[in-house]
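Recap from last week: sequence in, structure out.
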Amino acid sequence: MNTNNAVGSKLSLLFLCISSFILLIVLILFSGDKTAIAFADNQSLVIENAKVNVQAITIQSAYTKQRKVYGLIESAQQANLGFELSGVINETLVAEGQRVVKGQILATLDKQRLMAQKKELDAALLRAKADAKLRSLSAKRTAELVEKRLEPDQRLDEANAALDAANALVNEVRARHESLNVELQKSSLVAPFNGQVVKQLLDSGTVVTMGLPVFVLMAEVDLEARIGLPTQSPLALSLGERYTLSYEDQTVPAKLISLAKQRNRATRAIDALFKIDAQAAEKLYLMPGDLVSLSVDVEIDKQGAWIPIGALSNGVRGLWTLFVIDKSTGSQIIQARSVYVEYMEQDYAFVSGALDHGDLLVVSGLHRLTPNQVVQNIQVINTARN
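Predicted structure tokens:
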């Protein structure tokens, strides 16, 4: 019996020590902010002196988020280059990626047929000139004889007619010769401007028709960026305004010079054309085909509210938790609400869920709060997103 009493006394003493230790810890925790704790009649924990900062929630029918859209650098001047006559490609003199200057020969056609025709015309022109010279001397002698009355006037008319025919033949052969020289020039494909060969479409030995593209040439000056915009984004852009593009974490100043009037059939986006700042293009060594991006605002139809990220605490099943002040019972009671985070931007989050317009959102001191606490001292502050 005495043994049982001794054990009971020890247990009572142990329970008393543990209770005293817990009470001491509670007093230490709340002594720093001079907060007194008590239980109300409804068993809700009351925070008497601690100040709780709150903010009124503003419900919106939509929110705007930033989205990166991408596009490619392209040349303001681009040409598909082909020969102006048919033939067989004899030689290609440049390769893809090579820079060329205006007037540089890029490829040639087989000229054997044209050169044979040139030799024939050269000989024909010499014969025609020789015949014309002979006809001229004959007409001169005939004129002298007619003047001396040794030949009738008819012989002079015949001599002059023969001279005219000879001169006409010279002009005809000369015209054919010049036309052949033009064809010989056209048998060489030359660069119409300074630029870069971005694509070679045909090789040596290929039979080509007039105008069939052999090379694609892009000018390296006046670079442009073509970017596909989401449906509503073009409404926020203005022609002639300057915008900042991004290239490998570098900023690229550009001016909007064109907005398409209809969607791109392949991407379903609206193409925007930006003229790249020349100094930036040179500094960053931008080239056709480089990838650039633009941050645009996109409006999302979703009801919710912007709140400070600091007002959120972890929830369950992908939800987040925030605290609001409920005054419906006459007291200021902490209530937990579960919300979805739709979008985050810097220090704010757009959330949707069980929120009402005008709810008082707790924005600081969340670590001291639990649901059903009664708050006696609240202060409304403005931390709304601009």
